[in-house]
Amino acid sequence: MPKTVNIAVIGAGTMAQAVHLPVLRRRWDRFTIAALVDHSPRRRREASEVWGIEEESRYETVADLIAAIRAKTLTVDAAVLSTDGLHVDDLLALMRRGIPVLVEPPLGYSAEEVAKVADFERMTGRPLVMLAYPQQYDDSVARMAEHIAVKDLRMVDHEVLMPASQPLFGQAHVTTSSYDLPTEVRSQRRKDLQAAVVAGSGDGATQRDRDLYVKGLLTGVAHQMAVTEAAYGPIARLVAVRHWPKGVIPGSIELLGELETGAQVRLVWHYLPFAPEYSETVQVLSARRRMRLELPAPSHGDSRSTLGLREKKSGVVQETSTTAPKGSAELMWEAFHAFVDKGTAPVAGAAQALAQVELLREVLADIVEADGRSLEADEEPGDDAGADGAASTADAADAEDAAGTDDAAGTDDAAGADGVAEAAGEQPVEPAAETLEQPVEPAPETLEQPVPVEDADLAAPAAEDGPAADPAPAAEASAPAGEGDPAADEVSDAWAESAAERPRD
To answer: Can the peptide bond before residue 22 be classed as cis, meaning omega within 30 degrees of 0?
Structure first.
């Protein structure tokens, strides 16, 4: 009989409550929730009451959790880290105890930051990190290469329509976000997050560039790259990139790439705040076959992916369709159980996270260069980019150390995109760049800021740090909608939320 794994849930934000905790409770035969960690007293209490976690199993920080493990008052076999994106310090603390960790992307914002984890894991001689990309473990994705082999692959076309949070998380039972942390703590967290993003995007990036990097690339396109990599391997070369509409963040992003085999990959990610539903489709072509996947959002736990295949045999077109037996989130947790119990290697870990952040930084550089600018800090005095860089010069100097300084455990999934925007003060007027050529001015309703992020304190009212550039709807990837709408509240910390509060994440 499979071992029951004792799990510490670190971060009780939207992704934890909408994706991870429901699976852990349903799969009581494989997992026990041994502890819950969250820096917000209110959310820690409310989430624990909803999910049945006793008072003695609740902790404020990862340091408190590890102290209990050392004192042998708590037994933890593994952890899920679904905090606000400042993962590295907490992750390394867990890894030093030999604890395997399922991490909500992004693992970090810069190659230097992620390399700390990859280097430490390499020194331990065994994998300890698994990235929480549920759809990498989806049954339909796992079978793609069975139907169209890598050697026969001609083209992969992957498109995502990302709405605001309500269609993604409205059906989940998520407790409200809360602003119960002291102002100085929230302020320091914003500075730490801003420093990490500046280190990843470059001193010459404008605030809009940084928002695009986090809200569009690290929590949107990164998910699509992960699906392609699970089936056919990583993108080896960039061919072209574009971003539109001009000035809208994150807007729409298109990436053309090439696999090692020469097969082409097209990734298109749209943030459409008023879209009625989430949509994700993957089309795969070979000389003889056409395959189409429909992938539901991981937060829709009872939804199943479908895989359709069309081919011609003996002059007759034949079509087959199959439905996955389980949701992608549950399949991911089964894979994590095998990772912890048997050492089965995950699809993506620290090394893959490092390669991914390096490629996405290259994508951002291409978008910015198409706008006639550079991510290097060589702008003329008075530039918006220069102002952005100056605003966090002291923090950027030690961005690597700051990523995760808040002992622990920011509480939400994916990164705090809105928090970063606030930390920067006012938004620059420069539009986000486009690559290739691009269209028209967007309709007013598309000027909303998106993507799930998930930390209430990072998404504190704009008045505290300055107005946000583009207000977003009360939904998954926008500014906080108020405590009246729990799902919107959580996800409004758009960065994840990936995993993608993100996208999950």
So the answer is: no
Return the SS3 of 489: helix
Burial 111-139 (b: 16+ CB within 10 A, else e): bbbbbbbbebbeeeeebbbbbbbbbbbbb
> Is-contact 51 23, C-beta < 8 A?
no
> Do 307 and 396 belong to one domain?
yes
Q: Are residues 372 and 459 in the same domain?
A: yes
| Residue 132 and residue 197 in one domain | no
- On whether both 187 and 153 belong to a single domain, the answer is yes
pLDDT tens for 392-418 read 433 333 333 333 333 333 334 433 444
- Condensed to tens digits (0 to 9), the pLDDT of residues 191-226 reads 999 999 999 999 999 999 999 999 999 999 999 999
**Degrees, nearest 5: CA angle 478-246-395:** 60
Residue 49 lies in a domain: yes
Determine the angle formed by the axes of helices 350-370 and 183-201, rounding to 10 degrees: 80
**Six-digit token pair at 287?**
């000389």
pTM of the shown model: 0.77
Question: Is 165 in the same domain as 299?
Answer: yes
Q: Are residues 339 and 374 in the same domain?
A: no
Closest CA relative to residue 364, chosen from 220, 188, 162, 469: 220
Domain assignment of residue 30, given as a range: 5-137+330-348
CA 148 to chain centre: 28
